[in-house]
């Protein structure tokens, strides 16, 4: 196991200097799931929850979260995101939030993709909490990250 890059020689928090790295096209994908009761899934499908269109609101919340990641995670770099996608899909036992975030920069966008998935699922939780007391968020994970040299 390597050493932590966000800790300096004295063990203090340290924002990594990425200034020496060349700008590259960076992309990351993440996903997570919220387990829901069948009645809650029905209400979401029929757009019959009092707070409104759960999936659309969650997708917008995830996009906003991707753009604000550096405000939430102290040592995360502020990035110029060129694309943020969040897709919430109803499945048999809940909803899956899938994200894809891109930027041209000197560091990756995996934290933005993970944050987008997390906040999308938390938004679903918030919108459904009045009708479902057994929700469970699980499996928030980074699926892929890539970097490509600029052409």
Automatic annotation (TrEMBL):
Q: Which UniProt keywords apply?
A: Lyase, Molybdenum cofactor biosynthesis
Q: What is its EC number?
A: 4.6.1.17
The keyword Transmembrane is annotated on this UniProt entry: no
User: What are this entry's molecular-function GO terms?
Assistant: cyclic pyranopterin monophosphate synthase activity
Q: Which part of the chain is the Molybdopterin cofactor biosynthesis C (MoaC) domain? A: 15-147
Q: In which pathway does it act?
A: Cofactor biosynthesis; molybdopterin biosynthesis
> What is this enzyme's class at the first EC digit?
lyase
Record's function text: Catalyzes the conversion of (8S)-3',8-cyclo-7,8-dihydroguanosine 5'-triphosphate to cyclic pyranopterin monophosphate (cPMP).
User: In its UniProt entry, what is this protein called?
Assistant: Cyclic pyranopterin monophosphate synthase MoaC
């Amino acid at each position: 196991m390597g050493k932590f890059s966000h800790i300096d020689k004295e063990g203090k928090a340290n924002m990594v200097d990425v200034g020496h790295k060349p700008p590259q096209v960076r992309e990351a994908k993440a996903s997570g799931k919220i387990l829901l009761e069948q009645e809650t899934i029905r209400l979401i499908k029929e757009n019959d929850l009092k707070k409104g269109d759960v999936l659309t609101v969650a997708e917008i919340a995830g996009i906003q979260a991707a753009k604000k990641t550096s405000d939430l995670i102290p040592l995360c770099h502020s990035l110029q995101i060129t694309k943020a996608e969040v897709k919430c899909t109803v499945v048999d036992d809940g909803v899956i939030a899938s994200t894809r975030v891109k930027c041209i920069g000197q560091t990756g966008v995996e934290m933005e993709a993970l944050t987008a998935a997390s906040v999308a699922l938390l938004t679903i939780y918030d919108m459904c909490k009045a009708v479902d007391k057994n929700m469970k968020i699980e499996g928030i994970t980074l699926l892929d990250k890539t970097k490509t040299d600029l052409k």
